[in-house]
Design brief:
By secondary structure, the chain is α+β, with helices and mostly antiparallel strands. The protein has eight helices and ten strands.
């Protein structure tokens, strides 16, 4: 925007000469949220194995000599699903219609299993839920013509007008509790976070709003589309509309968040654009 590409009204506000009037720049921000439910567990965790003096030497040897052990593994386990019927029966009819508008193979929830070490050295098990296809939208814009001034970022978490994301998030939270209840043989004591006192949907949602963080998969703020589409910023070759010799080749060029981790999608986009450049397109 500071260089003159973006919504005309925003650029005019800061006396920036308009090079390309693109209303979609900074709009349509999809951000996949992530929130945890934590229990103390009686199993050794990766954090313990790589920090405990009694284990760290063996852990390092496993990695350097055999490329094995905790240091050789990406941390965590991942699973996806649509919310099961027993939990979606409480969804509003409008929420069910919106969820039905997604492709049938799109997951509604992602689960990430992880571990940590408590300050007292005890092992912590963490099951987190993420919303891979949120209906909430955020935005990013400027507050000055000075490039050193930080932008204004509104991630828009749990803000969709029909509260679909909130309903899915509460269901995902309950699903995590179902998972923990199925493995009580490895848990110690009551739930640590948010704790057993959090039971009503209102309290669960309040906890989610407070505990939610980003999973760093933001997308859509330079959305790919056709000339004439009011939301489009780049074309199918990632070229910024209305200017020459400028492309956007990252996750912001995707018009929506892929329902999962976007790394391979961004690699694919980069490979495609690199091939176009090699062939002079």
């Amino acid at each position: 925007m500071i260089k003159g590409i973006g919504p005309r009204s925003t650029l005019a506000k800061y006396n920036i000469t308009v090079i390309s009037d693109l209303a979609g720049v900074g709009q349509n921000l999809w951000d996949q949220i992530l929130f945890p439910v934590t229990q103390m567990i009686n199993l050794p965790t990766a954090a313990q194995l790589i920090t405990d003096p009694r284990s760290v030497i063996q852990t390092q040897q496993e990695y350097t000599q055999e490329a094995a052990g905790p240091l050789s593994s990406q941390n965590g386990f991942i699973a996806f699903e649509k919310v099961p019927q027993i939990l979606r029966k409480d969804f509003t009819p409008l929420a069910l219609r919106q969820l039905a508008s997604l492709p049938p193979d799109w997951p509604e929830v992602e689960y990430v299993c992880n571990s940590a070490k408590a300050p007292n050295g005890a092992g912590l098990g963490i099951i987190l839920a993420a919303l891979p296809g949120p209906f909430s939208r955020g935005s990013i814009t400027i507050r000055s013509a000075d490039i050193s001034t930080p932008p204004v970022i509104d991630l828009g978490w749990l803000s969709d007008p029909n509260n679909v994301d909130a309903q899915v998030a509460v269901a995902a939270f309950k699903r995590i509790r179902q998972a923990w209840s199925s493995i009580t043989n490895i848990t110690i004591g009551p739930e640590l976070a948010p704790g057993p006192a959090i039971q009503s949907d209102t309290d669960i949602l309040a906890y989610i709003r407070n505990a939610t963080t980003t999973i760093y998969h933001a997308a859509g703020t330079c959305a790919m589309g056709r000339q004439g589409d009011s939301k489009a910023v780049v074309d199918s070759s990632a070229r910024v509309l209305g200017v020459k010799n400028l492309r956007v080749v990252d996750n912001s060029a995707s018009p929506f968040a892929v329902p999962g981790h976007p790394q391979s999608t961004v690699y694919m986009l980069a490979e495609k654009i690199a091939d176009l450049l090699r062939h002079g397109s």
